[in-house]
Amino acid sequence: MSMNNSVDKKRIVLLGSTGSIGTQTLDVVRAYSDRLSVKTLVANSNVTKIEAQVREFKPDSVVMYDEKAAEELKVRIADLDVKVTSGMDSIIEAASAEDYDILLTAVVGMIGIRPTIAGIKAGKTIALANKETLVTAGHIIMPLAEEMNVQILPVDSEHSAIFQSLQGSPARSLSKIWLTCSGGPFRGRKKEELENIKPADALKHPNWSMGNKITIDSATLVNKGLEVMEAKWLFGVDYDDINVLVHPQSIVHSMVEYCDGAVIGELGLPDMKLPIQYALFYPDRLPMDTPRADFYDIASLTFEKADMETFEGLSLAFEAARTGGSMPTVFNAANERAVALFLSEKIGFLEIPEIIGNCMAAHKPVANPSVEEILVAEKETYANIERLEK
Ligand code: NDP
Ligand code: MG
Questions:
Q1: Is the pTM value of this prediction over 0.85?
Q2: What does the pLDDT read at residue 254?
Q3: 206 and 257, same structural domain?
Q4: Are 189 and 116 in a shared domain?
Q5: CA 62 to chain CA centroid, nearest Å
Q6: Can you tell me whether residue 312 is helix, strand or coil?
Q7: pLDDT tens, 13-36?
Q8: Residue-range definition of the domain harbouring residue 340
Q9: Cα separation, 222 vs 214, whole angstroms
Q10: Are residues 36 and 136 in the same domain?
């Protein structure tokens, strides 16, 4: 008797394939090429990297946001039968396609909002790394996902840990989230010790290797602020029930506390491939060939409160979160621009939260903003910063 072992492959549309999460997603696809395949790769402008990805993973199509990059890619892969397009409309079209299963969104920034909405409208499962989308448009994304009966599976490690810790328990019994945070490379320092920080110092994260923007966000603790908002949208908890917990070893990836006092967490060595793979195969767990946590070796785990005075980005995030409406967009957009300015050495490290605070103070929040209003708030914030910089 012959057995048919072939499983239908899950087809992925991958936004941000050339980035840190994107390439690790492709590592998972490579390891499980019998179960996963790539339908579309999307990036901004990194032609060299995406050419290699196209040759290896053989997608049907590629979208480069940047038009020139798309033209160059067309020439480079003229020998292949792969459709290459460019621009936001093409990204939205890729996310709206019929014939795929999972939209994994790993672009950086608010650019992810419209493609995510398109994917949900197409009824696709969303594996979400792109936290900025939930921070700014969570009030649109979550109800739409519910209406379309679409699952949003977190890829961010803390949120994956929370999601994993919630399996098998009724959502209504959740009473609190312990959102862990490594503390970043400057944990324990005071403000005056942060004045002369250079991009190279801030780009050295103690435990995780990530894209530049999120690495700076981890150094300012803005990343944790964004994650607090991400957690609120994903798990429907009040901000008062989200405790940020500094845990320098990054072994506990976050925990949930239930109404009976039980605390359940997900632990392991820090490796983004686990949350990526978990989202791609959810609710299954498949073997992964990575080093394991040896608790004899680790010996001790430590926890402390975040220093919100030094790392003002985190307190500003709670403020923006509690104000709600368009304020998280202003928080996020101001941070995106300030990080870019810091990376090009135009401003100092402490000016990042300063710019965020100034932009928030100048903004009159709109309740329940539409996507258009979110994009307007983003533009206004950029214009504000330009004015302030002059
Ligand atoms: P990277 O900077 O490494 O990668 C960003 C990706 O997005 C690249 O592929 C880039 O393409 C693409 N991109 C940028 N702008 C556009 C655009 N306008 N249109 C299409 N594609 C674009 O980021 P990360 O992988 O670090 O982070 C991605 C997201 O995941 C972020 O939201 C981050 O907060 C989140 N995240 C990341 C973690 C990590 O470990 N890295 C952990 C948890 C969450 P190109 O290369 O061509 O510029
Ligand atoms: Mg995270």
A1: yes
A2: 98
A3: yes
A4: no
A5: 21
A6: helix
A7: 999 999 999 999 999 999 999 999
A8: 324-390
A9: 9
A10: yes
